[in-house]
Amino acid sequence: MVTLTIDGKKVTVRKLSTVLDAIKKLNISIPTLCHHPDLTPFGGCRLCIVDIKGIARPTTACTTPVSEGMEVITTSPTLEKMRRTTLELLLSDHPDDCRVCERAGDCKLQELAYFYGIRENHFLGERRIYKKRDGNPFIERDMEKCILCGKCVRVCDEIEGVGAIDFAYRGFRTKICPPYDKDLDCEFCGQCVAVCPTGALTGKMWKQKGRQNLKEIDTICPYCGCGCNITLLIKRNDVIRVTSKPETINEGWLCVKGRFCYEFINSPERLTKPLIRVVPKESSAFSVQQTNPPFLSLSKELFREASWDEALNYIADRLKEIKEKYGPDSIAGLSSAKCTNEENYLFQKFIRAVIGTNNVDHCARY
Amino acid sequence: MTNSIPEAENHDVVFVIGSNTTETHPIIGLKMKKAVRKGAELIVADPRKIDLVRFATVWLQHKPGTDVALLNSIMHVITKEGLIDKKFIETWTEGFESFKELLEEYPPEVGEKITGVPKEDIIKAALLYGNAIRPGIYFAMGITQHTHGTENVYSIANLAMMTGNLGRESTGVNPLRGQNNVQGACDMGCLPDFYPGYQKVNLQGVKEKFENAWKVKLSEKTGLTAPEMINSANDGNLKAMYIMGENPVLSDPDVNNTLKALNKLDFLIVQDIFMTETAEIADVVLPSVCFAEKEGTFTNTERRVQLLRKAVEPPGESKEDLWIITQLSKRLGYEMRYDSAEEVFQEAGRLWPALAGMTYKRIAKKGLQWPCPTPDHPGTQYLFKGGFPRGKASFSIVRYREAEELPDNEYPFLLSTGRHLFQYHTGSMTRKIDAINKIAPEAYIEINPDDAKQLGIDDGKIIRVSSRRGSISIKAMISDRPRRGMVFIPFHFREAAANILTSNNHDPISKIPEFKVCAVKLEIT
Questions:
Q1: A107 in a domain, yes or no?
Q2: In sequence order, what are the beta bridge partners of A353?
Q3: What is the pLDDT of residues B449-477, one digit of tens each?
Q4: A68/chain B closest Cα distance in angstroms
Q5: What's residue A290's pLDDT?
Q6: Number of folded domains that form chain B
């Protein structure tokens, strides 16, 4: 363990900690844009600069290891002026379109501009103009809004192990892009979107769906067995975005399905009324085709709509009839690994206690 | 899983066999990659060059269906090298001596001959696992979907037991469950031989317990498994089926057989959120609500029971499954009265002690892992700490058996089916997503470049793939993923349904179909 002093307060941290870790331990607020606790320190944004006794120039806290007896100052008029200048430089090459930006209100750069009261810019000059739009269907990559913090590059490499993007070109033309500046072609986990501090990376399907007054519901991903915790963002009655919090069992990381595959909820193809078959089964599109059945949705011709009462009474009558004629073991139920525990419990109770058979199973084998 | 997902990053050796983890369980895949970054060695045993191979110290590309031979050979080396855990074997197991004799039959040379894996790699993997301090084995359907799937699992258990690698943090055997709540559906007794909590339907006293709780006479006859239901329908014995949230037409093997069977039923009820291929042949289709429109619990692969919260109102007149079941029950003369989903959960907890200590309030934040028998129990992070509940665990004498249907002159290729990253299962949810349909729009068959060259198949060409059950037209994807002689088709796509080809052969114990091995031929159209 190492003990050091920050702004006059003593703090003890583990040996390989950084000065930023120690600052965070003391709950002292310090601006950062390129830092993420799960990624290797980068020292790119220069906002976490601190004065350390014995070192002539301000140093980035995120890349400086702690040492015994170190004395650190996190704020002074000079440090704040330098931070402000750094921010102004970043903003001087950043589109002024917070009004229509998806991340407005949830943007670290905007928030820092707000705290430092930066309205006008002293550094008007050349701007990076990128006309090309990335054609991938998931992730909007607006590289004019990119501040080159490199979080997306690190998360893709260090967490996802994919390395789909990296820094390319030099100097003012430095840009983050896939190989040969082509369209993004990756696992589309969206980890990069989750860590991006600005509006450079957003979900394409989020566009203009809403930024404020969203209802947040913490729930569980409906896909595989990992059981990732997700947060549904809701506007009116529509899920418009899915995120995940860092304190969850999945540490905020999701896959393409968890993060981007929620639109089935609002699909116009959802069943909305009980349906009763009107034509014999042999006419079903799928069943008559031996090979490559065409995707025909014949449901409108195969079924008629019914009320719940009619449908439920019809089922009850038919099941009673079959049970009386052939016995309870002539009936079987298949439940679902997609349904809840409660639904599965009640389903097997229905088959066992009401129908009177143990013919109940589900899709565990498939 | 005997371990928990967070423990995965602290293994010193990760042994993945029959799981394409980064595509089918991406977040557990992240943990494995993290373990490797922290210094763990990764052993991957898979007939395909899955993405995890990039991170592996050793990759065992065994022939599909030869897992028992591979594992026995690995265990042979471990025994010969003296890497067994004698104390664990003595204290917690029985039958090791005769098991050891069996291993004599599987020196690495024999393993190489059966599996196609160079014996040096078998030895390397054995030494890595045998010398590990905190190894974790991970498997999924690549192990279970075989006519000897149960034997594959026994082999994995043998390996963990002989090395004493169970019952410790970051050390164990971890089957990865494929669906969000497949663990829960099993736990809740949607199985023909078990009441909730794996209580046998034909065990003295169990039936009586449930009869008392439910106040009704119950059957003592073990029911039919899903594949047996299809057979029984085909034989004309099963007359009606009630299918809730499943799409067996696309997910079960031998589509034509499944369709024939379901069409023979006098009455088929399907309850779902979409008009699935199975709903299309139903007599009545009931619209239910999806995960975002209801409250309840899901149990993930690490036995963690977590709270599902209602976020939006369901469309049209669709109703919650709980409402539908209680309404049907009432009409059949049995009243089920519940004011909330939690009342159902509490009833399950009264009948299965492992859940008894859980309430919605307790699981609201991070869930709880069963067993959690009392209100102050913190849940169980990993299983078998300090021993097995049944006392001593037995070694199973398992010999390598060939798969039921292997390639021959007429059908010279071995087909495995499975998932890929972007689509999910029969696609009833993911195929409604525009963005997904842009990047993963259609089915394909992975063919090894050498095989493709020999047959004159070009990448992207539509070819005809046939088995003894049927044939499909499908796009060829020339890929170095499958080993020579093997092809792979994802089963998500209705237009080229992989399950038209798969066989109806089952494991005799678990009744799981052999999705990972059947024989097909490829023809240029």
A1: no
A2: none
A3: 999 999 999 999 999 999 999 999 999 99
A4: 27
A5: 43
A6: 3
pLDDT in tens, A265-312: 999 999 999 999 998 776 554 544 444 443 345 566 789 999 999 999
Residue A14 and residue A58 in one domain: yes
Statement to judge: residues B73 and B193 lie in one domain: no
Per the DSSP assignment, residues forming a β-bridge with A10 are A5
End of a domain among A10, A40, A75?
A75
Q: Number of helices (H) and strands (E) in chain A: give both, helices first.
A: 10, 16
CA A169 to chain B, closest CA, distance in angstroms equals: 28
Task: For residue A287, give the nearest of B225, B263, B305 by CB distance.
Answer: B263
Q: What is the spatial distance between Cα B273 and Cα B428, in angstroms, rounded to a whole number?
A: 9
Q: Which amino acid is at B246?
A: E
Task: Determine whether the interchain pair A364/B182 forms a contact, defined as Cβ–Cβ distance below 8 Å.
Answer: yes
Q: What is the pLDDT of residue A293?
A: 46
- Closest to A345 in 3D by CA, of B203, B352, B314, B179: B352
User: Which of B58, B52, B108 minimizes the C-alpha distance to B79?
Assistant: B108
**Residue A269 sits at the chain B interface (C-beta within 8 Å):** yes
**A72-102 tens-digit pLDDT:** 999 999 999 999 999 999 999 999 899 999 9
Q: Domain range holding A334?
A: 317-366
* Site from A224, A240, A273, A360 to mutate, B interface, most B CB atoms within 10 angstroms: A224
| Residue B12, token pair as written in the block | 């010193």
Bridging pattern class, strands A2-6 and A166-168:
unpaired
Read off the pLDDT of each residue in A316-337 and give the average, rounded to a whole number.
97
In this structure, the answer to whether residues A255 and A293 fall within a common structural domain is no
Whichever domain contains B418, its CATH number is 2.40.40.20
Q: How far is B118 from chain A (nearest CA, A)?
A: 28
What is the least distance, in Å, from the CA of A258 to any CA of chain B?
10
A222 touches chain B (CB under 8 A): yes
In this complex, do A341 and B266 lie within 8 Å of one another by their Cβ atoms?
no
Averaged pLDDT, groups of 10, chain B, 525 residues long: 95 97 97 97 98 98 97 98 96 95 97 97 98 97 96 97 96 95 96 96 93 96 95 96 96 94 96 95 96 97 97 97 97 95 96 96 95 96 89 94 96 97 94 95 97 96 96 96 97 94 94 96 94
Residues A360 and A349 in one domain: yes
The range of the structural domain enclosing residue B15 comes to: 5-176
Q: Are B237 and B210 in contact (CB under 8 A)?
A: no
- For residue B290, the domain's CATH number is 3.40.50.740
| CB neighbour list of residue B492: distance below 8 Å, 6 or more residues apart | B419, B420, B423, B424, B425, B426, B427, B430, B431, B443
Residues of chain A with C-beta less than 8 angstroms from the C-beta of B30: 159-161, 253
Q: Are residues A334 and A289 in the same domain?
A: no
* Residue A40 distance to chain B (closest CA, Å): 12
Q: What six digits make up the tokens of B178?
A: 């494929």
Assess whether B213 and B338 both reside in one domain: yes
Q: The whole model's pTM is what?
A: 0.95
Task: With beta carbons under 8 A apart, name residues in chain B contacting A204.
Answer: 435
Judged by CB atoms closer than 8 Å, whether chains meet at A341 and B246 is answered as no
Enumerate residues 194 to 253 of chain B having a beta carbon within 8 A of any beta carbon in chain A: 195-196, 201, 210, 214, 216-219, 221-227, 229, 232, 237-246, 248-249, 251-252
